[in-house]
Automatic annotation (TrEMBL):
UniProt-recorded Gene Ontology molecular function terms: metal ion binding; O-methyltransferase activity; S-adenosylmethionine-dependent methyltransferase activity
GO annotation terms (biological process): methylation
Keyword field: Metal-binding, Methyltransferase, S-adenosyl-L-methionine, Transferase
Species this chain originates from: Zostera marina (Eelgrass)
Protein name (record): Caffeoyl CoA 3-O-methyltransferase
Region annotation (Disordered) ranges: 1-24
Pfam families: Methyltransf_3
Family statement drawn from the similarity comment of this UniProt entry: Belongs to the class I-like SAM-binding methyltransferase superfamily. Cation-dependent O-methyltransferase family.
InterPro entries for the chain: Cation-dep_OMT, SAM-dependent_MTases_sf, SAM_O-MeTrfase
Length: 250
């Protein structure tokens, strides 16, 4: 006979389940997250994004991909600001890149960077199939030297409508120092993972996965840097693993 869980046990069980799904759901319950996906996200997800999401699901580092609800959010933001020239740091198999490319007009451009092109190669056939590959200028290698090069030329200053940063968290503050010159006044920078699996709000001695612990201090430092920066307005969005949207105002 199955034992009946007490209210306390059920809650504890749900919490454990929720912990397991980690990263991609900061909501109160997995059921609520599933409701959002099934009601508002999956039914409106373009066929090619679904295909890329399913290919990525088989990748051993699938945890790195942008979630479908975050992809939908990015698409909406890009359309709201009429973005045309954008940048992405951290491509992986290209889910957020495809969301961006689909949201831009036909003559839109995305400068996309990743230290690894093998994962991008997995997604590229789907991006081509979606008819948006011509918008993407993919550069393999670390992003920081590319940003330094861009900053050197004043023509690039204030030229980007939107930048999505989803890469090495230990460099986010360095990226911010450069991106603030490259994004236009009124333009947006989105920093991903700023709630870092919820670890930003627990004490340092709480048990956490090794990689979560390693990057936690960098994310905490970034969040403080952004909150203190008078050149931007900010908004912390609890979608995915947390995105901080920064609107350049000066
Ligand atoms: C979380 S994943 C990006 C997920 C991607 N936005 C998506 O939608 O699937 C982080 C990516 O950053 C890349 N990366 C790490 N360090 C980097 C660096 N210094 N410059 C550029 N890319 C980097 C990694 O190779 C990895 O593909």
């Amino acid at each position: 006979m199955a034992s009946v869980a007490t209210a306390g046990e059920t809650e504890e069980n749900q919490e454990r389940q929720h912990q397991k799904s980690g990263h991609k759901s900061l909501l109160q319950s997995d059921a609520l997250y599933q409701y959002i996906l099934e009601t508002s996200v999956y039914p409106r997800e373009p066929e090619t994004m679904k295909e890329l999401r399913e290919i990525t699901a088989k990748h051993p580092w699938n945890i790195m991909t942008t979630s479908a609800d975050e992809g939908q959010f990015l698409g909406m933001i890009l359309k709201l600001i009429n973005a045309k020239k954008t940048m992405e740091i951290g491509v992986f198999t290209g889910y957020s890149l495809l969301a961006t490319a689909l949201a831009l007009p036909d003559d839109g451009k995305i400068l996309a960077m990743d230290i690894n092109c093998e994962n991008y190669d997995l997604g590229l056939p789907v991006i081509k199939k979606a008819g948006v590959a011509h918008k993407i200028d993919f550069r393999e290698g670390p992003a920081l030297p590319v940003l330094d090069q861009l900053v050197e030329d004043p023509k690039n200053h204030g030229s980007f409508d939107f930048v999505f940063v989803d890469a090495d968290k230990d460099n986010y503050v360095n990226y911010h120092k450069r991106l603030i010159d490259l994004v236009k006044i009124g333009g947006l920078i989105g920093y991903d993972n700023t709630l870092w699996n919820g670890s930003v709000a627990v004490s340092a001695d709480t048990p956490m996965r090794k990689y979560v612990r390693y990057y936690r201090d960098f994310v905490l430092e970034l969040n403080k840097t952004l909150a203190d920066d008078p050149r931007i307005e900010i908004c912390q969005i609890p979608v995915g693993d947390g995105i901080t949207l920064c609107r350049r105002i000066k």
